[in-house]
Amino acid sequence: MQKLETFPPSRRDYHREYMRKRRADPNFVRWAEKHPEVRKEIANRSYHKHKDDSGAKERRSRSQAKSRAKVKMEVFIHYGGDPPKCANCETDDVDVLTIDHIDGNGHQHRKEIGNKLGYLFYRWLRQNNFPPGYRVLCRNCNWLHYIGRI
Ligand SMILES: [Zn+2]
Q: Which of 14, 29, 32, 107 has its CA 20 to 30 A from that of 41?
């Protein structure tokens, strides 16, 4: 199928309108409900057609990065305030902040939850409604905590 952007503006609008009407058409909806496998096939074909399209890939990875950054910020704000700060030295550079397990039993705990690192750990915290027992520390203070100086 021809790319939407390559249509002259007038035809682009026409095409967009046509697709909108088609999706709203009860006949189409009825047909689509009856034939989930055909719709799957269409979606599948479109996926394979576009998966190597670097533009789409880039857009996809950019939106994934965005949603990861969002999850990370939510977790840091929950445990470290808004804007998030290190609980010890108050550094607020998000790039050096980490989530610290207050009991210091991070290794054991991570084993329990399946050794989730980085993003997966942030996502786990959010999925579990931000369980207590964590705080935000910067990497320096995290290390000092680890060697028992704080
Ligand atoms: Zn610190």
A: 14
Residue 19, number of CB atoms within 10 A of its CB: 11
Gap from CA of 96 to ligand 1 centroid (Å): 9
How far does the centroid of ligand 1 lie from the alpha carbon of residue 137, in Å? Answer: 5
**Chain segment 86-143, per-residue pLDDT in tens:** 999 999 999 999 999 887 665 565 555 666 778 899 999 999 999 999 999 999 999 9
CA 93/CA 141 separation, integer angstroms: 13
Question: pTM for the complete prediction?
Answer: 0.60
C-alpha 138 – ligand 1 centre gap (Å)? 4
C-alpha dihedral sign at 38, 39, 43, 44: negative
Question: Could you write out the DSSP letters of every residue in 66-79?
Answer: HHHHHHHHHHHHHH
> Separation of 83 CA from ligand 1 center, angstroms?
14
pLDDT tens across 28-78, in order? Answer: 888 888 888 887 888 888 888 877 788 888 898 999 999 999 999 999 999
Domain extents in the chain: 7-51, 67-146
The tokens 């939510």 sit on which residue? 74
